[in-house]
Amino acid sequence: MALVVTGERSPPSQTRDFTGTPVTRGGREPPFSAELAAVVAGSLEALNASDVAREALGGAPLTVRDSIAAVFSASDFVAQSCARDPQVFAGLIESGDLERRLAAEDFAARAPALPADPAAPEASFLAELRRWRRRELVRIAWRDLAGWADLTETLGDLTAFADAAIAAALGYARRALVTRYGEPRSAGGEAQPLVVIGMGKLGGGELNFSSDVDLVLLFPEHGETDGARSIANEEFFTRLGQALVRLLETPTPEGFVLRVDLRLRPFGDSGPLVSSFASFEDYLPRHGRDWERYAYVKARPVTSAERYGDIDAAAIRPFVYRRYLDYGVFESLRDMKALMEREMQRRELADHIKLGPGGIREIEFIVQALQITRGGRDRRLQTPSLLAALARIGETRLLPGQAAEELGAAYTFLRRLENRLQMLADAQVHRVPAEALSRERIALAMGSRDWPAVLAELDEHRGRVTPAARAALLVAGEQTR
Could you tell me the pTM of the whole model? Predict the structure, then answer.
């Protein structure tokens, strides 16, 4: 089945198959099933229904036209987004953004600006944020699925987009509150920022395609706002945090921007939405648990990096990285690993690439356990990036043999698979699919000959992770003696 990508009833010589090779009547069939070919053909037909999209595609570089079948076969999200919003598709082609790398600062520059009129309807800003998300995620997925971006670029771009989205939403929400209540200031009159700390994969700069963002919200000092309707700083920043979450999460006809998880804050769901630096500094040594030390390995400032440096030096690093550790730390890590293994058995997670045996979380445990137990003496391990920490673990030979290299290969494979599972429909998916069509689509996106080949490689990588976890516990135990 020949797939027309130009939007016209092209003669056979102009029709290209999945790989971009021209095919004619009687030529070889595309390397995917009739069912998948029909899906891609339907997506192309929907795209070509728009004059804007058809004109943009007709003038697109050959590399883009050649990649479209591969991308649409792997992502309904991309195909449907382009058909729904042809201006996004046309803009990506005309700008050349599909074919070029972006720096982190480019995302901030491309984020929606604050409306010139502060009284402009919030709904307009919500819609603009969501259309911008669609554009950036289509670009990121396209480059990834076309083979133009490696894993590091894809994770970095997803993180940079999330950082820029949080900053844009925060700027909008803060302006509205300052207009109403005035600027929050310390007792000495200094303006106070909201310090947004990214945790988890966001903090590590390695965000996946359809992920929550884990945030902790802090402000430096107590005081009050300087407006006619003055309120305490704590109330101001609580309202600001609530507005930030609403702007990012609220579903509209244009979708959402980010799912926000604030449960890693002090005292979790039972604690205040925001904390002052003083209360946070008091919380960590008095109430912080070992699993929170594990979590704060990933802490990174998303906003107000200069003020974050104060709380990082005063509270976070001394809490996470200690020069001398007692046996209780090792016991806690061992308990965490045992709990993970019980969860795997109880929840039947064999097909779950994040939580299942040999999955992403087990690799994260290995690396962060070594960071906690060794990072106090070796500052090179004090990084929120798993890939950077794993490279340093390999350099210092903390794990035996080729374990670090094998973990890196397993992590790369699992994160690529995770992104492809999620790019299919922009859904938070971590289980391998059961349907034949989905399996075919994922296998093609992974560059594998068929689904059994994907499973064989997955099993090979996961089989190397669990022994490495046991080795990491032994190394961590040696550090506490």
Answer: 0.92
Is the predicted pLDDT of residue 114 greater than 80, yes or no? yes
Weakest mean pLDDT among 46-60, 154-168, 303-317, 396-410: 396-410
Give the per-residue pLDDT at 380: 95
Does the pLDDT at position 29 exceed 90? no
Pairing relation of β-strands 274-276 and 223-225?
unpaired
Judge whether 213 and 258 are in contact, CB under 8 Å.
Answer: yes
Confidence of residue 18 (pLDDT cuts 50, 70, 90): very low
**Rounded Cα gap, residues 355 and 357, in angstroms:** 7
Which residue ranges make up each domain of the chain? 1-97, 101-318, 321-481
DSSP-assigned beta bridge partners for residue 184: 225
Q: Are 52 and 60 in contact (CB under 8 A)?
A: no
Per-residue pLDDT reduced to its tens digit, 192-225: 999 999 999 999 999 999 999 999 999 999 999 9
Residue 328 has pLDDT above 50, yes or no: yes
Read off the amino acid at residue 5. V
Q: State percent of the chain over pLDDT 90.
A: 80
Rg for the chain, CA atoms, rounded: 24
Q: Which fold has domain 101-318?
A: Beta Polymerase; domain 2 (3.30.460)
Tell me if 276 sits within 8 A of 236, measured CB to CB.
no
The predicted-structure confidence for 445-481, as pLDDT tens digits, reads as follows: 999 999 999 999 999 999 999 888 777 777 666 555 5
| Termini Cα distance of the chain | 66
DSSP string spanning 378-422? -GGG--S-HHHHHHHHHHTT-SSTTHHHHHHHHHHHHHHHHHHHH
Q: What's the mean pLDDT in 149-164?
A: 98
Q: Which CATH number fits domain 321-481: 3.40.50.2000, 1.20.120.330, 2.60.40.10, 1.10.10.10?
A: 1.20.120.330
Question: Tokens representing 42?
Answer: 């339907």
Q: Long-range contacts of range 455-463, CB-CB < 8 Å, 24 or more positions apart?
A: 457/413, 458/353, 458/413, 458/414, 458/417, 458/432, 461/358, 461/406, 461/409, 461/410, 461/413, 461/414, 462/356, 462/357, 462/358, 462/359, 462/410, 463/358
In 3-state terms, what secondary structure has residue 204? Answer: coil
Q: Running DSSP on this structure, what letter comes out for residue 12? A: G
Helix (H, G, I), strand (E, B) or coil at 35: helix
- Name the one residue in this structure whose structure tokens are 């005292």: 267
Helices (H), 12-118: 34-48, 51-58, 62-74, 76-84, 86-95, 104-110
Do the Cβ atoms of 450 and 464 come closer than 8 Å?
no
CA distance 123 to 106: 25
